[in-house]
Design goal:
Radius of gyration: 24 Å
Oligomer: single chain
Strand order of the largest sheet: 2-3-4-1-5
CATH class of the largest domain: Alpha Beta
Strand content: 5-15%
CATH architecture of the largest domain: 3-Layer(aba) Sandwich
């Protein structure tokens, strides 16, 4: 993968190139990002950049090191992206370069097997090509894990130590790309000595989403690089260029996705859903029709599946955000479709600012529980009752 194939993140790309150009690359980098920001494709592009012949041809094998060396003078400017044409680039693009190793959460492939990343190498290559902005849930579903919990095991750590102790095959550098080190657990302590005193020209590239779940002993041995969420305009442009959808639709999806390209693709899959009709029916059932209509609506929503339920809740949150913006900006509010503006005005009539904020909090909680396999029928029954108290009875629910 090339830097140019990664959505946005221009400042981070430039920083990485400058670190290499000035020989300031730490041997262990931790890329911390929110879901859908693109840290994994960015790191894959960086790994390819590190093995590209045309980028580093002038430095290997006798040129200056790319790693931190206070005695080393700054190097000359390098290419800002891998060439994509040399043999190392072609192998890296297929995630098959012998000196780039990958580690990621896996399950036991079959009884008697050890849970090792190498057992899922073909699936990993396909996943990185087809779903580069996917999350752990996507990956585990991709390998057929179903309800099994993936992890990076002690056996995996031993295999990493073994692989990185070997000589390189063709590159000057050995690279480990570890995706989601949060799944290491205490087994990660086996890697501490390797990370602290790595073999020459060994580079660790860790890609994480939750800093709090990473072993502190590993965190202290890495240089942190924070990857910001994508801009709405970057998500919109990517949808137009890569998915081929028209700009207005892409703009609406990007505003809902809030910098998460994975979420944007999920929204695109359900773009034909008329969530306004569904929301109007729900509010009518809550405020006018009564318990029978509420039960009917909940039963229908419970049948739609987890992803659609999440998209619906996100859409409701989006409309409430627009309602709050409309209160402040009024006629100056731009970038909102007429039908959404009309609905936002109606929401402002039935709920105050405090009530809308209370609803948003309940919707956020509901999304959290859905992601953790909450029963849809029970969840939406409870949410219906809470919204009834918040809107109709003007009582703020805080529990």
């Amino acid at each position: 993968m090339l830097f140019k194939d990664v959505i946005g993140q221009q400042a981070i790309k430039q920083k990485l190139v400058e670190l290499v150009a000035h020989g300031r690359v730490s041997h262990a980098l931790l890329f911390l990002n929110k879901e859908g920001s693109g840290a994994l494709p960015l790191v894959n592009a960086f790994a390819q950049y590190m093995v590209c012949d045309k980028v580093h041809g002038s430095q290997a094998p006798n040129g200056p090191s790319l790693f931190i060396d206070d005695k080393q003078p700054a190097t000359k400017a390098l290419l800002t992206d891998a060439c994509g044409l040399c043999p190392p680039c072609q192998k890296a693009a297929q995630f098959a370069h012998p000196d780039i190793h990958y580690s990621y959460p896996v399950i036991t492939a079959k009884p008697g097997d050890k849970p090792l990343s190498v057992n899922f190498r073909p699936q990993w290559r396909e996943f990185c090509k087809l779903i580069p902005y996917g999350n752990v849930f996507d990956w585990l579903q991709f390998i057929g894990a179903e309800n099994k919990q993936g992890n990076i095991s002690a056996e995996e750590c031993s295999d990493i130590i073994k692989q990185l102790s070997l000589k390189t095959f063709e590159s000057e550098y050995k690279i480990l790309v570890m995706w989601m080190p949060e799944y290491l657990g205490k087994e990660g302590n086996k890697l501490l000595k390797l990370i602290e005193e790595p073999p020459p020209n060994t580079l660790f590239l860790l890609v994480a989403e939750n800093e709090d779940l990473i072993l502190q002993t590993i965190l202290s041995r890495t240089q942190l690089i924070k990857i910001p969420a994508l801009e709405d305009s970057e998500v919109k442009n990517a949808l137009v260029q890569r998915a081929g959808i028209e700009e207005q639709k892409a703009f609406q999806i990007a505003s809902l996705a809030q910098g998460n390209y994975r979420e944007a693709l999920q929204l695109l899959r359900h773009a034909e859903e008329d969530w306004q009709v569904v929301l109007r029916d729900w509010l009518n059932a809550i405020l006018k029709a009564g318990p029978v209509a509420q039960v009917k609506w909940v039963e229908e929503m419970a049948k739609t599946g987890r992803e659609k339920q999440k998209q619906f809740l996100k859409y409701f949150t989006h409309l409430l955000d627009q309602s709050l913006r409309l209160r402040i900006l009024g006629g100056y509010l731009t970038g909102i479709a007429d039908n959404e503006k009309d609905f936002a005005e109606r929401l402002n009539k039935i709920a105050s600012v405090n009530q809308q904020q209370a609803i948003i909090e309940e919707l956020d909680k509901a999304q959290y529980y859905i992601e953790r396999n909450a029963n849809g029928k029970m969840l939406f029954h409870a949410l219906t009752i809470k919204l009834l108290h918040i809107v109709k009875n003007k009582v703020l629910v805080t529990t």
